[in-house]
């Protein structure tokens, strides 16, 4: 029996309001989901249009084609962009996860001086609007010669991803039973062994989902790479951005569909990890 | 218990006092925690905090005027901008020396561009004058050549001006280079940099100063030997001005070789036909006759300036103080207002759409709400560009929404709705993008509201509406607050979506910042606008921290 069920004694007015409310909610869900789903069929358009052709609406197979996908996989500039994204995002993720996990463990200790100030600094890349980060990094990285380099983009993206790692890993560590490490130590394990054998397996779900957040941050990021990168670091979002701004080509819809599929996969992974972590911590029956 | 142990301090196992032992353990623990945090802290400080600080500095930095026109800014200090008169000939002479050097280094156009931000027309004045500055002082050059033919020879100038030590060094360097060339070895040692002779700057201050500048530019910029290059015409102008001022006694103090050249020159200058520099400038560009040009240079001669910040709020700095920007150049206040207005509109739309969804999710059985939550999380996880491109596709005039409306017959095919490249497009697309950020905090607050309160209200006779409005709603206000601040913070700094669907009327202040970085190259103004935006966001974030707390930022 939930709050949303109508009691048997509801008046007609209450019934009407109840169903109106459900319809409103349905419309809002439609608003949330439809724009994402609508591009999937459009990406199979046989014409270079951004709307449904009569042939598509008649479900005529001739109205559909894979030509935009073919273009994506054969066009050198899209391939270069994909390759750049694939090179940059993992590198940024590795840096963010390694440094972020260590720092999160440090922050979760009992006695950390200036914890609030340190936390504020580490979280700041998430709070500062991207355009400001991009402007600052553009000015500063041009001064030190990192502007327009692969390394510069990786460092910038790692900085943007770190807050997510910090947040997810600290959240996992809140439920971490410290007596486990003490037990390991009392049985003669050194801190490094304790970390890898006891602590790491338990906080791994948090680390992985933090890593996924960092990955998607970099993989999706366009503002900072527009400024910090140069033509050689053109990533997939950059290519989409210029495509949308200048010569809007339907290949973008094919790329968008692929990205939607990737995000569904990532969402599923994070959700599974979250449930596993909650089950491990005994917070939910699973 | 024996007496000995009960009176002394408590001891740890190794015999040290327990207190000290505990303190040491605590210190070690703190140190370990800091060691774990340190790498990341350093990383963030270098890759993120330093750039932000750099931007803040850049918004007030203004070295370009005093760096490019060092002599002019110094000479202008004594000029009263309220007098309505042009500066003295000394200022014009200083400007000539600065400009000829700047033109050689091709710096004068950059300076013109910088000052053009403040007073329109400066850029062309500097460009035009830069083309003719080489000729300023040519009259004196010709007259000197007639009176003392020696001075037309570059070698003579080196004899008069250069430090004999430098000449010896330079000769040695040239010999080494010649030897290297003969044997075919690489030779990349730079030549010794020009040094002035001791004392010459006391007697001929301007000429020595300008000649030294000339010699260094000849060496560094062009890789030439000063002894083989004919000095710029303004060097002769400087010499003329010096010789007009010094008495014969000063010339006597020069060394023999210099005196042989300069004594006849000194005798001759009195008879030279002189020429007003101001006329030369007015001839090059009439703009120099306007005191406003000079007061701009004077107003921006300090190393730090509030000018960019003033420009960000449609004010400008004049020599008399702060004034409103000209009517047609006032855009930033309007842009800030528009950014605020649109962010508020987006926030309002997010409350309207987000509240019912969060309410529904919080009140459904867990199994159903978990499934529906995926419909909220999927947009959250989908690439921003995917969502923006789908809105671009949907809202176009030939797009899906217009097609549907025409098909239903709500809209005539001839006048399809314009829903993109205006404020409407930006608000719709951004509401869609930011809606999950409203729903998630609202949902997490609503989940904690016990259903018993509403039931109790109803059992006491409250209508459904009263129970909701007086009992449920007040308890959900913290969620609204958190969601609103989050959405507002994110909206106010948005760049991508307004850029793609905002056209000209739906853009934010961030689009202007990007424009100044990549198109107009007015980096100082971009930095100042960015600093203002940053201050607003940090203030809002501080409020958010007060209400919700940093640690409660949840990620879905």
TrEMBL record, chain A:
Regions that span the bilayer: 21-44, 88-107, 119-141, 153-176, 202-228, 248-273
Domain of life: Bacteria
Main location: membrane
Compartments where found: Cell inner membrane; Cell membrane
Record's keyword annotation contains Lyase: no
UniProt topology in membrane: Multi-pass membrane protein
GO biological process: transmembrane transport
GO cellular component, one term: plasma membrane
Alphabetically ordered keywords of this record: Cell inner membrane, Cell membrane, Membrane, Transmembrane, Transmembrane helix, Transport
Domain ABC transmembrane type-1: 82-270
Residues of the signal peptide: none
Database matches in Pfam families: BPD_transp_1
Family, per entry: Belongs to the binding-protein-dependent transport system permease family.
Protein name stated in the entry: Putative spermidine/putrescine transport system permease protein
UniProtKB/TrEMBL annotation, chain B:
Membrane topology: Multi-pass membrane protein
Family (UniProt): Belongs to the binding-protein-dependent transport system permease family. CysTW subfamily.
Protein's name in the database: Putative spermidine/putrescine transport system permease protein
A Pfam family it matches: BPD_transp_1
UniProt-listed PROSITE patterns: ABC_TM1
Assigned GO CC terms: plasma membrane
Entry keyword annotation includes Membrane: yes
Ranges that cross the membrane: 31-50, 339-362, 368-386, 424-443, 477-496, 521-544
Keywords from the named record: Cell membrane, Membrane, Transmembrane, Transmembrane helix, Transport
Localization terms from the record: Cell membrane
Chief localization: membrane
PANTHER family: ABC TRANSPORTER PERMEASE PROTEIN, INNER MEMBRANE ABC TRANSPORTER PERMEASE PROTEIN YDCU-RELATED-RELATED
Source organism: Rhodovulum euryhalinum
Keyword hit for Transport: yes
GO biological-process terms attached to the record: transmembrane transport
Domain ABC transmembrane type-1, residue spans: 336-544
